[in-house]
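Entry 12.
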Amino acid sequence: MSAPSLRPHVLMMSEITVDGKLTLKRGASSKILMKHMAHETEILLHKTRAECDAIMVGSHTIAIDNSFLTVRLAPGKSPIRVIPSSMADIPLTANVLNRDARTVIAVSEQAPAEKVDALREKGVDVVVCGKTHIDLPELMAVLRRDYGVKKMMIEGGPTLNWHMLRHGLVDEIRLIHLPFIVGGEDTPSLVGGMHIESEDEMIRLRLLRHYLCGSNLVTEYAVNYGD
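Predicted 3D structure (tokens):
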């Protein structure tokens, strides 16, 4: 696990249903469920963005949600938008490529040069981290060293969430609980990735606080790796 002083402090934040789902079904935008959040929790989400130096989501989430990832419902500056995309597969019409906030796209050495050039022409920073896949610990070090990112939030899907947790790069988790059950065997949940083999591999959390924000329960946890 990276030393905290060499990488940003990372908060994972997500809305989640009672049965742990992020969307209605595979391929559906999370914005569908987010419409049912209380206005107070929408404000909490934007306040949290304003408190962070950077915000990260995966390229798959960008393709489905086409989010802006800016601060709109609270005072404060929009954070740097960070999108890991090994092959630079970001649609050139994506909202994160606009000029509303600074954007960093992390790619691998295998990313096609023409895609990288097209992204740079949109005015975003492209950084190379990893040979064939994104080296997330390296990316965290780059963000801390080159961009001065001390605190970052993730609004990721299950794949990015799993990789960040697997590398020991998440310090806190904040969940907005939605009072719905959506079901679905393949409906995306908070964390994807490979199945664990025993309880020894479970990532343990320590509850820090819980409270109502409007009509939504919010829970906050510290992540305890190896404890």
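Annotation: Helices lie at 31-34, 39-51, 59-65, 113-121, 136-147, 158-166. The chain is about 25% helix and 25% strand.
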